[in-house]
Amino acid sequence: MDLFDFPDIVGDLIEDALTSAVEALIPGGWVRDLILAIIGSVADLIRTILDIPDEIEEWLSDLFNVSFGLLDSIGTVILDFFSRCNPLYRVDDHLEIMPASNGLIPVRIPVRNLNVSVNDVEMVVQADVGA
Q: What is the per-residue pLDDT for 60?
């Protein structure tokens, strides 16, 4: 969804300007109605032609599962920045798998190369565990 639909705005401006000019110059009747119908069709064609780049961008976004929109890109950069500073969940370098009990020390294992990826079906967490 676009914040401003420029093809529709331009199409409306052209249609309104031509409709006002025809209504001022040609008296009512079938000729004026025919010309107004042609103007409406031409304005729709202009809207469609001007909307082609946006449709291509949306198709590419769906195909690659990446948003190419300016506001989406800005939002992604901001979220990436804050996620590096303040992660939602943190795994300690040595993960405690058994707590200390009866005078014994806790059992901890090192976790390295933690990687998270998300696809259409699931979120996958991968890590190297152990020495």
A: 85
